[in-house]
Amino acid sequence: MNLELPLHVLHQAAGAQFADYGSWTLPMHYGDPLREYNAIRQGVALADLSYQGKFILSGEDRKAFLQGLISNDLLKATESSGIYTTLLTAKGKTIADFSLFPLPEGYLMEIEAENAEKTKDVLMRFRLRSKVQMTVPAWGRLLVAGPLAKTRIEQLFGDALPKMAEHAFFERAIDEVRLICIKRSVTGEADFHLYTPLENVEGLWTRLLSEGAGLPLQPVGQTALKTTRIEAGIPRYGVDMNEEVIPVEAGIQDQVISYTKGCFPGQEVVARIKTYGHVNKQLSGIILEGDIPPQSGAKISQGEKSVGWVTSAVKSPFVGKVIAMAYLRRKTAVSGTALTVDVAQAQTGAEAASLPFYPLRFNE
Question: How many CB atoms lie within 10 A of CB 313?
């Protein structure tokens, strides 16, 4: 039996249509996915991400422990800014991707839910005599997304926010309850993630929906979040990345790899690629004819030759066509290259496109 969100009853009362999503039962939409999409792209939306993975990595050796294992430089993390990083195999393949934020009690790790326990097991195998622990905090996580998200966050806290870069964060107390606010885009817009103790998450959800003069929030489910994520070209672990993918292939190397910090598992491989070579496949966009999105894993061909496969696909309101993220052979991943994709037991015409499909606005 799948797990339910702490606010499941509230979502149900709001008209949520549920479906199984990994090991969770989550709101897919609240009756009108297009309205929810428009809220993300034009206004402000609210989503419950409490199901996503989170750990506090604590202990006196936590900084040295992580620094020796992750691909990014932990020294770039400050009291107001986190980092995005990966954990790699010795061959440079991606075991996990996650964000880290230094809190007083330890590093908050944000990680894909279905990959959380596996990643914890891998990290703890490296622990040896290091004094580190990984625990799951009893927090809920709400997402406030869209071009008006910052304004709504300012209303919540009662003062103006400074300009925040991606992965910037701060802590405040509202009615003496701790709240952590992280800026990190999952839709291509300026998105804010709010962590609060589980006993407070219902009150925060209700407050965000009921307050905010002239700026109502639209609850959104996984359907709209998936559409905006694909339009923004943001890969998701377990869907667009796995343990067979090198960060360079997924196009995230500039975000997750430090080439100057020193040794970490997989460092020699990614450094060699940067200096001497290239990868044979890369995560790219494709635009398809017709109205049916292909399934994950659908074969992509150029003539009689197989040149890649689909990872994520959706009908895009922004593009007005079916779009997909896909791994293509490097020479094929050139915008405008004619392709065919297996869709519904037939071949559909398509062309390669650059990512993202949507102009990213998270730095505005």
Answer: 23
